[in-house]
């Protein structure tokens, strides 16, 4: 029953001529005589208050953010912000706030119960916290000050003692009693007074709460410092127990008689994932070991693998050719895809990696590298794939099948096009043309831009976690980072081996940026590129005539051509396009299109399951199921 | 005759059955072809796994000596020797009788000898078997220490593999028993701490856990070990911090609990302060958590006992624990086993509950006793817990001695409260079961029970009267004759309390029952506490004038003798003071004071103590003189004259100038008797 109630942190003070203060250091509360001289004195004592703009304050703000992120990693603050101070709006008139709304002064007469006053925090406690905790330090209790600390729902009368009314809970310092929506308290813990640090912990998993005094837990009540400084009570230890509990629950989920069934499902997931990405040899070995069958025949897998390798190596022209040869009619039926490929081919020509210009240049081993971040590139497939397909109207994706969020709903409804955009809210594009797909990918790789050649390092993953998460919230799809972590452990050199020319060069970062020249510096190649550009423009005009104007196409084309406007395209505002990681989304789009044309799922079931699980955890947060905070998909990906 | 005959026939029948199934396995051990012997041992291994009957059969058929022979023969192949130790280990996994048979066949020295072999696989097999044998309660642990080279060799094997680490630390922790600090010392002297500390961060959970257990056993009541432990670094981290990490809530309960034990023992041994945050904020809350309902009954017992031990000497820890997680109320649950629900629903659970019910109750009593040993508010909280006094009362008469002892401990702890003595103790007539408990109980129970009785006999205790009527004096007098000093103290202490402001009848009863002989024997007791309380008893007996005169008329000679002896002997200031107080009481009697006045030697002694360097003794001696020269009594003039002649007036005059206000006041009052 406490579920919908434990929303707001509440601090309540009633007292005769008392003032309460929160110190900015640890959300402390003090109450003392309202005599002005004394107040001045106390203000001095409440040291550590820092005005806004102070660099030290900014540092403190940074620390706070870090700590909150660590304590509540599952909380999306854009949706549900965490409480960080008392609310200047949501308080009784006798209450005064100061020092960044962390200190509370009581200004009333404190003669009787009618003089009670309380203040609520700025935001309700997000359920995704799982376990929420805050502390208050009593600097001075005052002459007859009564104090209560607890929780209440929004709208509960602020002129009352905490815990007296419905939807409010409180622990009172004068008698040590706890009040649960009732005028009569239950003996609970010790009394508290000046110098004590009182904490309140809300467990949204089992819907209990307990208070602490000076770092010691006082015991659970059934149903019932925003973190500026390290807490006196070891809340992280308490959380670790619940994390272990929930992980144990998941690990020991009873499957009963269905063990064999589960094994088959898991094998199928692994196998289909390998096949999807064209890891032919591995898939075959896996099938042999597990005595399972591969649906697609070997040649088909190898063909796809070859095409993917070509795209990833930047040899887009060859990839188009191979696709047309192996899958005749495929690109004719997917003009958007073809256009994207051609655009990419143009970009690769600028890069000097496409075979049409490549054959014209005599490449010095050090001058160029078409694929610098090689082993770390293919891993992105998984992520981009899910991005690409989650909104697809014709395949049962997680957002369609599991969680009809507003966004995915509207998209699947409007998904008449071949690649309805799911990620429009993340990217600037709003159309449902193929190009938006590309944008969603470039968005996600934006976050990793700063470390372009270390996509497989863990550090990078954690660094980019936040931004990627933000994206995955808006998309309502699988988180990019998770797929990357998972894939990051594979070695993908296999893919690259045929392309000895491009990877054998082993160029360093410096080599990449300094030694590059347009089309490899070859005049003939440059001419070929210009010519190709004209063809591309012609293709665009043709598509416009047949299918109508397409803003995304136009933008893509503009961006690609813009490269030519700079003397050093690799270090220009649109230079991002030249990054080899940009090939990945296109590569998986092509792969999916081929699979679809063969009547095979365009997304591997593993990624689908991952997307479903992620979406499920988010849904749990929305329905205020606290355990979601410790059941994050990340925790299970290694 | 008949009896023996039956036994024999039973064995014969058994042998016939056995022969049919197991003889073949044993026969193969004697095959001349070593390859066939090996195969025989392997087959035997497969046959005995999990089959207790088969194990017993093979032991009866004499497989053990043969296996040990093969294991020890250097001509046997390593493979054969290894398989032999595996089979022996398997046999040891059976019943306690199996272990006994193996130990009787001298398996331990044979396996220890095997450890000298360089082959790791063989060593591991031997250690595994040794481990199984040593963790059994029937194996005499002394066998590990008979050969002094064994421990150092085991220490050296710790570096060989994770398995050797696991088995050796497990052997150590089982072979280092409570009440045998010499085992701790042996292991300590052979570098146990330095060798085992790195294992705490082993990648293997089993190794970490066994190493941790080892430390908990080594540190228990051992200052030397504990003091060393606090300074040990493991991978740059203090050991106490390693233990704190092991107490984290996501660690397995077993690990949290054992780490908390280690820190508790280190704290009790004085190596960690009781106000250290690792005790207050980590160990104590961890142990309180272990008491909660969600844990296994065994864990709750261990948690409560360890917590009781941790906070026993420290009132601040008791206060913190009393407010942590509603501990006092949480413990009430310990008395609810077997629960009425379990009896109906689940016979297995009922059995489990029954097995642990005693342990739970005694652990709760112990923890309550520890919680309430100092703080009046906590005692109040405890007595107000649901049915608490009833539980103690019924605990006092439980069949389990452990529960009785713990219950009386708890009662003793609560009996330190004046308020509880006046109220709940009387309301629940706790004295009745307590008196019953005092009849032929073992010494440890008697000590606690009689100590509690002392408190119940305090003059303000309403239980004093009914206890007196129950004929307690005889019992207490018999306690004063005990060999245990603690019991003698308690007996005489209780009598002392009883005699305080008692009526003539009770006092006479005490003197009659105790007998002067015993009284004077106690006055020469080697234990100062006994002496002090006996003097206290005398003092209480010798109060109010008629009582003084009566007792002194019948026992005056002996008492004066005893007083002389004590004043002449080497005793502490407190003893002498108490003795002078008795003398002052005697001096207050009407007829009794003549016993002093006629004893010039005694008067000289009093004079001596009036000039003593210790103010307390001066005061007591002055009191005595003051009583002797008191004006309004018969013959006071003669006494004053005599004492003036002996030079007491000069001394009193001097003492009026004493810097101690009490002493100078007393001397002035005495001087006034001369002036009046």
UniProtKB/TrEMBL annotation, chain A:
Source organism, top-level taxon: Eukaryota
InterPro entries xrefs: B30.2/SPRY, B30.2/SPRY_sf, ConA-like_dom_sf, CRA_dom, CTLH/CRA, CTLH_C, LisH, SPRY_dom
SMART domains: CRA, CTLH, SPRY
Sequence ranges assigned to domain CTLH in this UniProt record: 300-357
Domain (B30.2/SPRY): residue spans on this chain: 64-255
CDD domains, per the entry: SPRY_RanBP9_10 (cd12909)
Region (Disordered): 367-467
Low complexity bias: start-end ranges: 411-450
Pfam families: CTLH, LisH, SPRY
Biased composition range(s): Polar residues: 367-388, 396-406, 451-461
Protein family (similarity comment): Belongs to the RANBP9/10 family.
PANTHER family xref list: RAN BINDING PROTEIN 9-RELATED (PTHR12864)
Record's protein name: RAN binding protein 10
UniProtKB/TrEMBL annotation, chain B:
InterPro entries (alphabetical): ARM-like, ARM-type_fold, Armadillo, ARMC8/Vid28
GO biological process: proteasome-mediated ubiquitin-dependent protein catabolic process
A Gene Ontology term for the protein's cellular component: cytoplasm
Chain positions of ARM repeats: 62-98, 514-556
Keyword Cell inner membrane on entry: no
The keyword Mitochondrion is assigned to this record: no
Location in the cell: Cytoplasm; Nucleus
Listed name of the protein: Armadillo repeat-containing protein 8
């Amino acid at each position: 029953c406490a579920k919908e109630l434990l929303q707001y942190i509440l601090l309540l003070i009633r007292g005769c001529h008392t003032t309460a203060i929160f110190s900015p250091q640890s959300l402390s509360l003090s109450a003392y005589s309202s005599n002005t001289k004394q107040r001045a004195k106390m203000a001095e004592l409440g040291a550590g208050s820092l005005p806004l703009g102070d660099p030290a304050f900014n540092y403190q703000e940074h620390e706070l953010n870090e700590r909150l992120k660590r304590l509540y990693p599952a909380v999306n603050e854009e949706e549900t912000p965490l409480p960080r101070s008392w609310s200047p709006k949501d308080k009784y008139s006798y209450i005064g706030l100061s020092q960044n709304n962390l200190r509370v002064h009581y200004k009333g007469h404190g003669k009787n119960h009618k003089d009670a006053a309380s203040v609520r925090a700025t935001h309700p406690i997000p359920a995704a916290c799982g376990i929420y905790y805050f502390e208050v330090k009593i600097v001075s209790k005052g002459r007859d000050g009564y104090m209560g600390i607890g929780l209440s729902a929004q709208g509960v009368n602020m002129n009352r003692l905490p815990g007296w009314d419905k939807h409010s809970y409180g622990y009172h310092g004068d008698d040590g009693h706890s009040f649960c929506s009732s005028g009569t308290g239950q003996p609970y813990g010790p009394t508290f007074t000046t110098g004590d640090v009182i904490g309140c912990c809300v467990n949204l998993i089992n819907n209990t709460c307990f208070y602490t005094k000076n770092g010691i837990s006082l015991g659970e009540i059934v149903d019932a410092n925003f973190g500026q400084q390290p807490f006196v009570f070891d809340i992280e230890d308490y959380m670790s127990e619940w994390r272990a509990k929930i992980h144990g629950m998941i690990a020991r989920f009873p499957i009963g008689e269905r063990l064999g069934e589960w094994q088959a499902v898991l094998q199928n997931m692994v196998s289909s994932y390998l096949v999807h990405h064209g890891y032919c040899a591995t898939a075959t070995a896996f099938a042999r070991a597990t005595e399972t069958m591969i649906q697609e025949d070997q040649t088909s897998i190898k063909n796809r693998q070859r095409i993917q390798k070509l795209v990833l190596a930047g040899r887009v022209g060859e990839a188009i050719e191979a696709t047309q040869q192996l899958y005749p009619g495929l690109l004719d039926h997917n003009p958007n895809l073809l256009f994207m490929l051609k655009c990419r081919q143009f970009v690769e020509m600028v890069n000097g990696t496409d075979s049409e210009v490549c054959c014209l240049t005599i490449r010095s081993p050090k001058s160029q590298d078409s694929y610098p971040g090689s082993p770390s590139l293919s891993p992105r497939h998984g992520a981009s794939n899910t991005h690409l397909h989650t909104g697809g109207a014709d395949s049962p994706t997680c957002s369609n099948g599991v969680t009809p969020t507003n966004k995915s709903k509207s998209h699947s409804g409007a998904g008449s096009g071949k690649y309805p955009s799911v990620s429009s809210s993340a990217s600037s594009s709003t159309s449902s043309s193929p190009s938006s797909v590309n944008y969603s990918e470039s968005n996600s790789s934006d976050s990793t831009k700063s470390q372009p050649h270390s996509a497989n390092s863990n550090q990078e993953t954690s660094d980019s976690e936040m931004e990627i998460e933000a994206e995955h919230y808006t998309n309502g799809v699988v988180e990019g980072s998770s797929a990357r972590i998972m894939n990051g452990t594979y070695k993908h050199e296999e893919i690259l081996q045929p392309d000895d020319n491009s990877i054998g060069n082993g160029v360093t970062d410096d080599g990449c940026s300094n030694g590059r020249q347009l089309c490899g510096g070859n005049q003939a190649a440059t001419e070929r590129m210009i010519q190709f550009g004209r063809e591309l423009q012609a293709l665009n005009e043709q598509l416009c005539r047949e299918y109508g104007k397409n803003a995304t196409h136009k933008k893509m084309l503009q961006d690609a051509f813009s490269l030519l406007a700079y003397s050093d395209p690799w270090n220009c505002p649109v230079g991002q396009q030249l990054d080899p990681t940009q090939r990945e989304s296109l590569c998986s789009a092509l792969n999916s299109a081929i699979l679809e044309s063969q009547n095979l799922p365009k997304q591997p079931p593993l990624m689908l399951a991952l997307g479903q699980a992620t979406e499920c955890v988010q849904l749990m947060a929305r329905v205020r199921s606290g355990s979601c905070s410790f059941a994050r998909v990340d925790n299970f990906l290694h | 005759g008949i009896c023996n005959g039956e036994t024999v026939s039973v064995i014969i029948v058994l042998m016939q059955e056995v022969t049919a199934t197991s003889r073949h396995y044993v026969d193969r051990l004697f095959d001349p072809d070593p390859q066939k012997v090996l195969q025989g041992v392997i087959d035997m291994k497969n046959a005995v796994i999990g089959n207790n009957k088969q194990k017993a059969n093979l032991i009866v058929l004499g497989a053990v000596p043969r296996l040990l022979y093969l294991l020890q023969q250097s001509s046997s192949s390593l493979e054969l020797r290894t398989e032999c130790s595996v089979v022996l280990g398997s046999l040891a996994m059976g019943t306690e009788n199996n272990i006994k048979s193996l130990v009787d066949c001298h398996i331990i020295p044979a396996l220890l000898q095997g450890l000298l072999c360089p082959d790791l696989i063989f060593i591991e097999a031997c250690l595994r078997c040794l481990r199984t044998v040593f963790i059994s309660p029937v194996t005499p642990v002394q066998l590990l220490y008979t050969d002094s080279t064994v421990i150092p060799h085991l220490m050296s094997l710790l570096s060989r593999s994770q398995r050797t680490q696991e088995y050796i630390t497990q052997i150590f922790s089982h072979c280092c028993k409570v009440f045998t600090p010499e085992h701790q010392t042996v292991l300590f002297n052979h570098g146990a701490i330095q060798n085992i500390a790195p294992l705490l961060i082993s990648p293997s959970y089993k190794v970490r856990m066994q190493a941790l257990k080892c430390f908990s056993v080594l540190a228990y009541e051992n200052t030397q070990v504990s003091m060393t432990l606090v300074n040990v670094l493991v991978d740059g981290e203090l050991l106490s911090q390693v233990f704190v990490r092991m107490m984290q809530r996501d660690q397995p309960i077993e690990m949290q609990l054992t780490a908390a034990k280690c820190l508790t023992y280190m704290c009790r041994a004085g190596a960690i302060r009781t106000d250290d945050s690792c005790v207050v904020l980590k160990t104590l809350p961890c142990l309180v958590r272990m008491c909660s309902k969600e844990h296994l009954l065994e864990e709750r017992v261990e948690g409560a006992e360890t917590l009781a031990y941790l906070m026993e000497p420290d009132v601040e820890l008791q206060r913190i624990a009393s407010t942590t997680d509603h501990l006092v109320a949480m413990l009430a649950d310990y008395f609810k086993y077997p629960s009425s629900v379990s009896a109906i629903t689940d016979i297995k659970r009922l059995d489990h509950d029954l097995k642990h019910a005693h342990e739970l109750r005694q652990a709760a009593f112990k923890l309550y006793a520890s919680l309430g040993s100092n703080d009046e508010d906590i005692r109040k909280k405890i007595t107000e817990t649901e049915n608490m006094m009833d539980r103690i009362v019924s605990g006092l008469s439980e069949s389990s001695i452990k529960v009785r002892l713990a219950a009386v401990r708890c009662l003793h702890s609560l009996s330190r409260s004046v308020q509880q003595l006046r109220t709940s103790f009387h309301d629940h007539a706790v004295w009745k079961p307590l008196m019953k408990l005092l009849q032929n109980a073992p010494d440890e129970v008697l000590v606690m029970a009689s100590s509690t009785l002392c408190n119940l006999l305090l003059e303000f205790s309403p239980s004093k009267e009914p206890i007196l009527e129950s004929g307690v004096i005889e019992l207490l007098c018999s306690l004063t004759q005990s060999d245990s000093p603690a019991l003698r103290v308690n007996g005489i202490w209780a009598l002392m309390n009883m005699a305080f402001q008692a009526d003539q009848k009770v006092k006479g009863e005490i003197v009659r029952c105790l007998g002067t002989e015993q009284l004077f024997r106690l006055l020469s007791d080697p234990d100062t506490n006994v002496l002090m309380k006996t003097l206290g008893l005398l003092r209480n007996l010798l109060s109010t004038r008629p009582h003084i005169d009566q007792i002194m008329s019948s026992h005056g000679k002996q008492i004066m003798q005893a007083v002389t002896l004590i004043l002449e002997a080497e005793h502490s200031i407190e003893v002498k003071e108490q003795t002078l107080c008795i003398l002052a009481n005697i001096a207050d009697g009407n007829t009794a004071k003549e016993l002093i006045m006629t004893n010039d030697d005694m008067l000289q002694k009093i004079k001596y103590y009036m000039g003593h360097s210790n103010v307390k003794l001066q005061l007591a001696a002055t009191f005595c003189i003051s009583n002797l020269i008191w004006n309004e009594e018969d013959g006071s003039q003669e006494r004053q004259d005599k004492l003036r002649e002996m030079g007491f007036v000069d001394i009193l005059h001097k003492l009026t100038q004493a810097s101690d206000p009490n002493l100078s006041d007393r001397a002035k009052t005495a001087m006034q008797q001369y002036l009046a």
